[in-house]
């Protein structure tokens, strides 16, 4: 939401002042269509809430949202890092990656694809329902992963790795958008750290899984089964995201109207919106003038 919606501690307002404040928000940000305004203005229950209610709501958000964020990010890392484990079960010899720097290049080419895919993914996630965008991304990267089983040359692997990077690029910024729509600023770092920490857990578990898959004796090389199984699991998980992920407080299922109201109203202190599909050029210029943006840019 825009600056007009900055949070005044709700307990310091009288009931009548709160009602008038919410009526006023009906006319705010209509140009850019922030949908949180409609939730605040349309709610006709008690406008104040207790700290206990808010803590209970945050725990519910954690249960329903963080589980999906963590598993998805874990799958992303598992799929991305599979190359090094598949190499132990015949991939390097089957695709002639032992020649020169072919193996190193097959690992490195993932990251140009990641850079290539990041911006379109961010734009799609901001413009369209994020649960559908992430569903499509995860579905396509699962299909891309399964296609690796059909690769017969190092050039084919280069193409697969590039597009895998382009598809997986949307997960991290997408999850940042989701976290920014559900949590206060002081709550966000912990949640991002939780789903990012899945890389460590997956690093422990994935070798055990792939060791077992690598001992499958069938008509295909063991490393091909590893990619087929991982891709199939990723595709199935895409449908779980589509059906179960609460995308934002406005459209979340299995939340009561009061829970939605509290989830939206408590976000006013962030001085940001919950869901807005309009591009604001003034925000772009503000970002480009921010020294912290450029520090992060060059560090990355």
From TrEMBL:
Tell me the membrane topology, using the record's own terms.
Multi-pass membrane protein
Q: Which Pfam families match?
A: MFS_1
Q: Where are the transmembrane segments?
A: 103-121, 133-151, 163-183, 195-213, 225-245
GO CC, alphabetical: membrane
InterPro entries, A to Z: MFS, MFS_dom, MFS_trans_sf
Name used for this protein in its record: Major facilitator superfamily (MFS) profile domain-containing protein
Q: What is its main location?
A: membrane
Q: Where in the cell is it found?
A: Membrane
Q: Does the keyword Chaperone feature in the UniProt annotation?
A: no
Major facilitator superfamily (MFS) profile domain: which residues? 65-300
What SUPFAM superfamilies does the entry give?
Answer: MFS general substrate transporter
Note the Gene3D superfamilies from the entry. MFS general substrate transporter like domains
Task: Alphabetically list the UniProt keywords.
Answer: Membrane, Transmembrane, Transmembrane helix, Transport
**What is the top-level taxon of the source organism?**
Eukaryota
